[in-house]
Amino acid sequence: MDLYHIWCDLARGENDLAFCADLSRYLEHLKGQGLVASFRITRKKLGLAPAELGEFHVIIETESLAQLERAFEHVATRAEPVEGLHAAVNQKLERARFALYRDFPDPFRASGQERF
Question: In whole angstroms, what is the distance from residue 38 CA to residue 35 CA?
């Protein structure tokens, strides 16, 4: 699995529950189209995370980079309903940061090729 991470803060004056509801609708749409495998929306607890990471952390799991690329391409069409779902999320956040991780070791990793 590939894990696409998003850290962000809410834009000033935005409601946290409305943001999460909009984000869930958007990601459920992508999941329903077979463009993501699963997702989680998390929020910093007790301030225990570096400030630069933001208040919210979203983890989107895809089965491959090809699936993630299909998700990006779907959103890039800017066609409805995905455009409205994406816009509803983007207007509520600021300072988004992104990262891409993978499960490790992955199934195609050759054993005996370790580096120390």
Answer: 9
Written as six digits, the tokens of 12 are 């000033």
Confidence band, pLDDT 50/70/90 cuts, at residue 63:
very high
Kindly state the DSSP code that residue 35 receives in the 8-state scheme: S
CATH number of 2-98: 3.30.70.100
Q: In what order do the strands lie in the sheet with 2-10?
A: 38-43, 56-62, 2-10, 93-102
The residue type of 75 is V
Backbone angles phi, psi at 89, to 5 degrees: -80, -50
Q: Which residues of 80-111 are buried (b: 16+ CB within 10 A; e: fewer)?
A: eebeebbebbeebbeeeeeeeeeeeeeeeeee
Q: Which residue has the higher pLDDT, 112 or 30?
A: 30
For residue 35, the model assigns a pLDDT of 98
